[in-house]
């Protein structure tokens, strides 16, 4: 079986109404198109379920939370349409998270790269362990964090987003992420992270569902154009991925 067909997305719902959407891929929890599509389906499904009060987005245990998009699929891009479709994957997930009626809490237990940072930024409230280092690596391989950019910039601000985008090789600490607004809390251990996550979700489940829905709308006010914007950004990435610079950088990275 091709590596892009491996992995899974599953949803576990607790008796009190917390839906844990869990993704896994053997290659550092990267997300090929298959898993991105399954994430969209899972997020949309929980949005309509009356028995779900809060959603937790998390990955299966691995020292990496999410390594971003599938590099194997990136290497295989040979034309603009395929490239645009590839880069649209994270855009569809971010838009599903944005449009969901549920508060989405992120659980980031390990490091994130590229699209993984975008997932963390697209949650409504994000909790992390001290191991949740991160970087936006896209510029190093010939394009940029165009699709996830609006979600990241919304959380950390334009100046910090610019800093992250222009320093693709530099890892940032979880505490640095907290100071910029990417993470709301950072914990020394995963056990502490999970204890607070359970406590926080229990509290959210005790609040008015109608009030949470209205708060969600306010949190995302002004992003209604993202359904178009993120696809436009995907087109930019798809075009740049076909340049000689990107092809050479991707080939060099693949060999390293």
Walk me through this protein's architecture:
With 256 residues, the protein is α/β, with parallel strands linked by helices. It has a single domain (3-205), classed as 2-enoyl-CoA Hydratase, Chain A, domain 1. It has helices at residues 33-48, 71-75, 80-99, 115-122, 149-156, 158-166, 174-180, 190-205, 209-219, 226-240, 244-255, and strands at 8-13, 18-24, 54-59, 64-66, 103-108, 111-113, 125-129, 134-135, 185-187. Strands 1-2-3-5-7-9 form a six-stranded mixed sheet, sandwiched between helices. Strands 4-6-8 form a three-stranded parallel sheet. The longest helix has 20 residues, at 80-99. The two termini are 24 Å apart. The model has no long low-confidence stretch (mean pLDDT 95).
Largest sheet: 6 strands, mixed
**N→C terminal distance:** 24 Å
Radius of gyration: 17 Å
Return the string of H and E elements: EEHEEHHEEHEEHHHEHHHH
Briefly note the structural class of the backbone.
alpha/beta
Q: What low-confidence regions span 5 or more consecutive residues with pLDDT below 50?
A: none
Mean pLDDT: 95
Number of strands: 9
What is the name of the CATH class?
Alpha Beta
- The DSSP helix count reads 11
Write the layout of secondary structure elements.
Layout: E1 8-13, E2 18-24, H1 33-48, E3 54-59, E4 64-66, H2 71-75, H3 80-99, E5 103-108, E6 111-113, H4 115-122, E7 125-129, E8 134-135, H5 149-156, H6 158-166, H7 174-180, E9 185-187, H8 190-205, H9 209-219, H10 226-240, H11 244-255
Parallel strand pairs: 2-3, 3-5, 4-6, 5-7, 6-8, 7-9
Antiparallel strand pairs: 1-2
């Amino acid at each position: 079986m091709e590596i892009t067909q491996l992995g899974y997305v599953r949803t576990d719902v607790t008796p009190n109404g917390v839906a844990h959407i869990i993704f896994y891929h053997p290659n550092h929890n990267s997300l090929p198109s298959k898993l991105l599509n399954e994430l969209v389906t899972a997020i949309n499904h929980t949005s309509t379920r009356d028995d779900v009060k809060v959603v937790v987005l998390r990955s299966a245990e691995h020292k990496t939370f999410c390594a971003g998009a599938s590099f194997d699929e990136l290497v295989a891009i040979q034309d603009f349409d395929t490239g645009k479709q590839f880069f649209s994957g994270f855009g569809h997930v971010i838009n599903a998270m944005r449009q969901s009626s549920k508060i989405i809490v992120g659980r980031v237990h390990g490091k994130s790269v590229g699209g993984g940072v975008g997932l963390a930024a697209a949650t409504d409230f994000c909790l992390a362990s001290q191991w949740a280092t991160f970087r936006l690596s896209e510029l190093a391989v010939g394009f940029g964090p165009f699709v996830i950019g609006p979600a990241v910039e919304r959380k950390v601000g334009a100046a910090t987003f610019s800093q992250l985008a222009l320093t693709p090789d530099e890892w940032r600490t979880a505490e640095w992420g907290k100071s910029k607004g990417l993470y709301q809390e950072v914990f020394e251990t995963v056990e502490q992270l999970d204890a607070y996550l359970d406590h926080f979700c229990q509290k959210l489940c005790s609040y008015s569902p109608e009030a949470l829905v209205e708060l969600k709308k306010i949190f995302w006010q002004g992003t209604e154009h993202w359904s178009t914007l993120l696809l436009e950004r995907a087109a930019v990435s798809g075009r740049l991925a076909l340049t000689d610079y990107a092809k050479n950088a991707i080939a060099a990275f693949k060999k390293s």
